[in-house]
Specification:
The complex is a heterodimer. Chain A has helices spanning 33-36, 44-65, 85-102, 111-117, 162-172, 179-187, 212-224, 227-230, 239-265, 280-292, 302-305, 310-321, and strands spanning 2-7, 12-19, 23-31, 75-81, 106-110, 130-135, 140-147, 150-156, 269-273, 296-298. Chain A is 42% helix and 19% strand. In chain A, the strands form 2 sheets. Chain A has a 5-stranded mixed sheet with strand order 3-2-1-4-5, sandwiched between helices. Chain A is α/β, with parallel strands linked by helices. Chain A has 12 helices and 10 strands. In chain A, helix 2 (44-65) packs parallel to helix 3 and helix 9 (239-265) packs across helix 10 (280-292). In chain A, strand 2 and strand 3 form a beta hairpin. Chain B is α/β, with parallel strands linked by helices. Chain B has 5 helices and 7 strands. In chain B, a hairpin with a 3-residue loop joins strand 3 and strand 4 (79-84). In chain B, helix 1 (14-27) packs across helix 5. Classes of the chains: A alpha/beta, B alpha/beta.
């Protein structure tokens, strides 16, 4: 079954053709990074306008790369949320039009479920049940996944998303954008134990996350040690030590909650997904810790971790197989908790 | 003439910050604009969590940072628009953001990093926050306009603060 996937939840206009939820025939992404860079992040209104311009060319590219025509598409999957409503609506409108004109089924996808199911586009795939951590600039969600379309949210952030904390610390230290990538690279030269930043594990019985306090701790550290930024040569701790220590605090909490979730649910597999899954320290440490405990970790390739439409198409295939189909009054949803 | 009333208060803990937000939220009505000003980590989002609760947004609803999305909407007794201009440069293009639609909407608007607006709304409740200790914050609250001044008076009574 040939599915066209469409993803416009944030700043990537993406379309992909996937066969039977496994075989990627094309996976096109038009990034808007250059437009948003001067704002240090995505500007919603600009993003929707750019999606309008890009969406049809990107879909056409996806079809031609897959060497098929629209007539061969058997279903359209589109991200419904969470994300920026104006951006989501662009993808939804196009998906509805295609489904209506071609008389093929339309299926709405939760962006976060898409990230988790990206793991099924790899050669080696997990088997149910497993625990999945989705980390990105906008989300930090922990799931127990018992089947396709059966995700139980175990925990989420109460303030800043993990990726957001990276961006804010990068901005505070004038390191540039996108902060996650820069901090990852810089931290390789730093000592992760140079500064003992707080780890927010929260109450005992929760799998929720909080990164706001850590951000404040970094602010306070820089205030008390202004030389680290202004006169780095006179300071024994470098900016790389600082970012490595900050990164370590984020990674420690992400890993410990994920491992605890896997153990509580009695599962042997973990999926790590979302843009921050590209962070080299997080990948390496999670694999190490998991190996010691006999857990297997699945991390999709970087191009399947960032926002893409192949994950949406795959998700759409499995949802259609299970009888899910959306009607033409489908609307965008900005927040994850408003999903049914 | 626009009346103006202000007071300062020291908040000793995160809980204090949240409570102050809740009291303020209870007093707010549709059309009110709260301008939050203060450095990274001073507790603007935390104060907004309290405001949201005071406005009747259910307590189990997570009020998360809008730095990434710029605008988050919540349904309380009146709609709450939680805006964050952290990523904007001072004097950015307001049109590109579609901000005006929110500033003149029938809801309560809370704006973090409001000093980045090309121009602050004339009628507003301005909250200036400063980090003075790990959790301790110095907060100055100013009401610009009749309704904000009235809210400030009530809030001060509630907090038992000095003028």
């Amino acid at each position: 079954m040939m599915i066209l996937g469409i993803e416009t939840s944030c700043d990537e206009t993406a379309a992909a053709v996937v066969e039977d939820g496994r075989k990627i025939l094309s996976n096109m992404v038009a990034s808007q990074i250059s437009i948003h860079r001067k704002y240090g992040g995505v500007v919603p209104e600009l993003a929707s306008r750019k999606h309008v311009e890009s969406i049809v060319p990107v879909i056409n590219e996806a079809l031609s790369k897959a060497r098929i025509t629209m007539d061969e598409i058997e279903g359209v999957a589109v991200t419904r949320g969470p994300g920026l409503v104006g951006s989501l609506l662009v993808g939804i409108c196009v998906a509805k039009s295609i489904a209506y004109v071609k008389k093929i089924p339309l299926v709405a996808i939760n962006h976060l479920e898409g990230h988790v199911l990206a793991a099924f586009l790899e050669k080696e795939i997990p088997s149910f049940p497993f625990v999945a951590l989705v980390v990105s600039g906008g989300h930090t969600n922990l799931y127990y996944v018992s089947d396709f379309a059966a995700l139980e949210l175990m925990g989420q952030t109460r303030d800043d998303a993990a990726g957001e904390a990276f961006d804010k610390v990068a901005k505070l230290l004038h390191l540039g954008y996108p902060g996650g990538v820069i901090i990852d690279a810089l931290s390789k030269e730093g000592n992760p134990n140079a500064i003992n930043f707080p780890r927010a594990y929260m109450e005992k019985d929760t799998f929720d996350f909080s990164f706001s306090g850590l951000k404040t701790a970094v602010v306070n550290y820089v205030k008390q040690n202004p030389n680290i930024v202004e006169h780095p040569e006179s300071h024994t701790i470098s900016v790389a030590d600082l970012t490595a220590s900050f990164q370590e605090a984020v990674v420690d909490v992400l890993i410990s909650k994920t491992i605890k979730a896997a153990e509580e649910k009695g599962v042997g597999q973990i999926v790590l997904a979302g843009g921050v899954a590209s962070n080299s320290r997080l990948r390496a440490r999670l694999k190490d810790v998991a190996r010691d405990r006999g857990l297997k970790v699945y991390i999709p390739a970087p191009e399947l971790c960032t926002d893409n439409a192949a994950m949406v198409a795959a998700c759409g295939y499995y949802r259609l197989k299970r009888g899910f189909q959306s009607s033409f009054d489908l609307d965008a949803i900005s927040r994850n908790r408003d999903f049914d | 003439m626009i009346s103006n009333r202000k007071f300062s208060v020291i908040l000793k803990s995160l809980q204090d910050t949240w409570e102050t937000g809740r009291y303020l939220g209870e007093l707010l009505e549709a059309g009110d604009v709260v301008a939050l000003i203060g450095e990274l980590g001073c507790g603007k989002t935390y104060l907004t969590k309290g405001i949201a609760h005071g406005l009747g947004v259910p307590e189990n609803y997570y009020i998360t940072s809008p730095s990434f999305t710029i605008i988050n909407e919540y349904q309380g007794r009146v709609p709450l628009y939680h805006i964050d201009l952290y990523r904007m440069e001072k004097g950015f293009n307001e049109e590109a953001l579609g901000l005006k639609e929110y500033l003149y909407s029938p809801g309560v608007v809370v704006i973090e990093w409001a000093e980045k607006l090309p121009e602050l709304p004339q009628t507003r409740i301005e909250v200036r926050m400063e980090i003075i200790g790990d959790q301790e914050r110095k907060v100055e609250i100013i009401g610009h306009g009749d309704h904000p001044a009235f809210i400030i008076k009530r809030l001060r009574q509630k907090l038992g603060a000095e003028a």
